[in-house]
Structure formats: structure tokens, C-alpha cells
Here is the input.
Amino acid sequence: MSSPSATPSATPPTGQFETVFSVSSSPIKFGAGALRELGDDAKSLGMSRVALFVDAHVLASAPGQVALASLGAAGVDVAVYDQSRCEPNSDSFEAAAAFARDGAFDGFVSLGGGSVIDTAKAANLLATYPDELIAYINAPIGRAKPIPGKLKPHIACPTTCGTGSETTGITIVDLKSVGLKTGIASPLLKPTLAIVDPTTTETLPAGVVAACGFDVLTHAVESYTARPYTSRPRPAHPSQRPPYQGATPYNDIGALAAIRLGGKYLARAVRDAADVEARHQLMFASTLAGLAFGSAGVHIPHAMSYAVATLRHEFTAAGYEEREPMVPHGIAVVINAPAALRFTASANPTRHLEAAAALGVDTAGAAVGDAGEILARAFIDLMRATGLPSGIAALGYREADVPALAEGAFAQQRPLVMAPRSVTKQDLEGLYRDAMRYW
Here is the structure.
């Protein structure tokens, strides 16, 4: 990847291009049966009374019962919060925070998808350092108040193979006061421990696996194609180095591995719930992608997704029939990816071709000018093979919605600045038009 030249020195002058990247991740325990060790892990972290954040469906499932039994066997007192909302909003975050403040907890456990894990992160923050939610929300939408210090221990136990929230210092929320989806980002939000048990994915509906699996792929591709960390100015002080640093040699390893696993196993995991290998491998891909984007960052597809998920609530995705109408995060992200990748490819066609090859595309002899279309087509073919919508028109959007969508996406400067080429509001309008229908 091309990047600005930089001459290393002991004390580079302020304004020189970055030469340093940092890696910070939560401890991870991965493997079949790992959830049975939850109670012992909670005790080892000093937890005696925990808030268990869970969705009611998961609580009634085998993973829910395993978690409760493990915590009980370890002598941990548990208070269950099962009102976590799928695709949480500011009201659901505030309700969870009130529960956390009232419970006198010394630790948190989250068991579920990214929505549940994100809810536990926010509840932990707002209970430990009470303030308005908007105070901590990323600028320019919120005030971006720094988190004052360490939070209480949090063990995150994902039951879906997609968001990677168990590895990241990010929590995402639909902020009702401004009608935008946004978030809070800080290394202090990272769970203390991630327990990733792939057996929890074995009973997921096919549509949920598809949505979550595409979140994995877009995380990984966005991380791999993000602007290089060497393209940012070196900060005046190490503490000013941002959580999202851009593509680094470390993040590239996890991102490419996740893309390869997604390309090989996603369609299999969707087609056949009995294909345990595929579902377990997709869960591992999710963890790898979470580690990669947690410090490299994501860019245009995610920025576009927040407006897609927020402005209309009339779509019901396969596998989410028991929920109120909404666009699941993975679908909101991937439905923008082909259009966005066509746009970003010119900044670094080699990276886009490498991502396509990792997905399984034969790129031998491909022209660099075709890189964006080749990678976009790989996504489109996989979307069709797994039954995803054909574009944002299938979610209920029309040409008249494009300006509002672009306005909402352009407000997401935290991910947009990580794109390999700059993007204007007018560019975003064009990308939404491209994403309207792919087939």
C-alpha cells in the first residue's frame, strides 16, 4: 500500500506523518464449551454480584441456561436484565443504565448479539460515571466527553457471528433526539474478557447468520482498505493517537484471514444449520474481524449504514420476523458495500483486488481499473446466494430519500475519515443511488 514517506527518529517533530501504530485488545477465550467457564472467569475478575444483560430469546435458549448455571455454580449473585433492544436506541440505553445504577453491581456479563453487548457497555459507563448519554456520544453529534477512568469488569459472550463487539471499544445507538445512528468510542469500553463459544451459533436462523456474516465481511474489507496509518499526522502526544488508526500490518493479518473464512464458509453456514464447521469458522472470522477493525477502523459502508438503519423502519428481514420492523446492522452495512467499494478502489486498487482474491475470486490478469467492480461483484454474488435484499429500494427507500440519507451519512465523520479517499455529501448521494438496486 502506498503511503507518505516518513523518516523514523527518536523524537519526530509534531506534524510529521505517523510512524507508530498501537495494538490494544481484550483477552479472548475461544472454543466449543467456553461458555461453561463463565462463572469461574467472573469469580477470577472479582465479581460477586453481576448484571446479566441478555435478550429474552437467548435467556430461554441453551446458551442462556448454560450461562446461568455456570454463574450459579460459582456462587455469583445474578440479576437478569432481559429488556435489551435489538438495534438499541437512546431510550433503551437509558433504561439499561437505570437498571445498572440501581443494582449495586460489581461486574457485568453480556450474552447475546452486538446489541446486547453494546447495551451492557453503555449501562456500565452511565452507571459508573453518570451523565447524559449525549455527553459521551462522538462529535460532532455529541460532546465526545472522555470517559473519566476504568469501568467495572465486563465479560462479553457473543451468541451471533458478526459484530465483533466483544473485542471493541465501541457502542452504537440510534440517538432519537437527532434521528441518527451514532456511537461512543473509547478503549475503556472494551470488555475485560471475551468468551466466544461457537456452539451458540448452531441454532441461529439462516437469515440471522447471513446478516451477521456480512457484517464480518464488511468489517474486514473496510479495515483492509482503510487509509494507511502512515497517512495521518503524528500526534503531538501519544495519548492523542486515535482509537481508529487506519490499516496497519497487524490489522491486515486478521482482516485478510476473516475475509478468507467468510468467503469460504458464509454461504455454507446460511444454507445448512447442520454444517457445524461452517458456523464455528464464521464465529472465528467474526472475532478476527473485530480485532482488526477495532483499531484499524471501518469507513464508508458503515457510515452509510447508520442512515439506512435509522430513517425507515418498515423492513422485516428473514430470521427477524419476531422483531419489530427494522434493518439489521449487517444488512444495513453490506447493502452499501458494493457501491462504496466501486468508489474507493481508485485510491488503492491493489488492496481491493487482494480482498477479492481472499473472497475466492480469480484475479489473475485483472486490470487495476476493474478492481472496484470485481470486488463489488464478489459481494453482490454472495448477497444473491444468501438471499439478501437487492439494494436499498428493497428496504423501502426511494430517490426522494437520497438527500436525507446522504445528510445522515455525512454526519458520521469518525468512520468517513478512515476512507482511503475523501468523500463529499454529493459523493454519498451518488453512492446511495448506486446502492438502490444491484440486480
About this structure: The beta strands are 28-30, 49-54, 77-81, 107-112, 154-158, 170-175, 180-185, 193-196. The two ends are 32 Å apart (CA to CA). Residues 6 and 108 are 43 Å apart (CA to CA). Residues 33-196 form a domain with the Rossmann fold fold (CATH 3.40.50.1970).
